[in-house]
Design brief:
globular; homodimer
Chain lengths: 175, 175
């Protein structure tokens, strides 16, 4: 695939995306050692996911975006926030891209969209995320869009072999 | 109430505690400005809670403890951990005491019990918690039992008046 052939769309997910999103998330879980999900565990129920997507679409402080390349969903980016008033301004960021599509700038494009969405939400005032310290490529991306490391958490995660990993807590204030 | 009259028990919660725990948590939500819960929102269903307590009691990396003073549940302390393998060793601590019972050392007693439980669990290897920076009494307690501040998070919470608050991330490694 040459870069010229790529047609990229970043947009909010809708209920009809449920099947493709479930498949993408399961694949990411199998492919990456950097996330909590590991490809095992309960398969995501498509119908339940479609219902969740409808609720996310209507939420003022939650969002799920998808990256679509040549018609296929190959990445997701989300902001999750509480409905509790004391925490409603606090958005937790999650982002994933299928391995075959790493290096095409999809992560950056989705992060830019998430930050724009947060700024326009009028309610999100802090974005935060956690990332394994060994995942330097992701950390560099987050730094490029303005995130700062607030803490390095020892034993914040562990590998499938039981080795403990440092995890960085990063944040970006939204004004 | 003089200190001599107090009979204190700290123990793991059982399903029969559900009604008293629900009442205590609701009261705490109304009384304290330091927690996420604020006394509004869906009341806790006693039956559902009893079911949860049964699951917690059987869990190897989750626990809910109660502080009982003269037969009444006046405080709770919990460790919540994921069933995902990559995060199963990571316990999030939550603790609450009814206002009338502040200053009697219940928080300290429950924290000691939680830490002992974590050390004996064989699976929990890091305890973490978040606490509003203005809640200095709680922070001093956590420091006394060994927790260290890893980060001060700007806008980590907000008051009911919309004022942003710093929140401390604290952790304790369990070996």
């Amino acid at each position: 695939m040459t870069r010229e052939e790529i047609d990229i769309i970043i947009r909010e997910a809708i209920p009809d995306d449920a099947e493709q999103i479930a498949a993408a998330l399961q694949q990411v879980g199998r492919e990456t050692p950097y996330l909590v999900m590991d490809g095992t565990g309960a398969a995501i129920e498509v119908e339940e996911l479609a219902q969740n997507l409808a609720e996310l679409y209507d939420s003022i402080n939650n969002v799920l975006m998808v990256a679509i390349v040549n018609g296929k969903i190959v990445g997701t980016a989300s902001v999750s926030a509480s409905n509790k008033r004391r925490m409603e301004h606090l958005g937790e960021v999650g982002i994933s891209v299928l391995k075959d599509y790493w290096g095409f700038g999809l992560g950056r494009a989705m992060m830019d969209s998430l930050i724009d969405w947060a700024a326009e939400s009028g309610i999100i005032r802090r974005l935060e995320l956690t990332v394994q310290k060994r995942n330097q490529r992701a950390i560099q991306l987050y730094e490029k869009v303005g995130f700062q490391t607030e803490a390095v958490m020892p034993r914040g995660a562990k590998t499938d072999d039981g080795e403990f990993l440092d995890v960085c807590l990063m944040s970006l204030l939204i004004d």
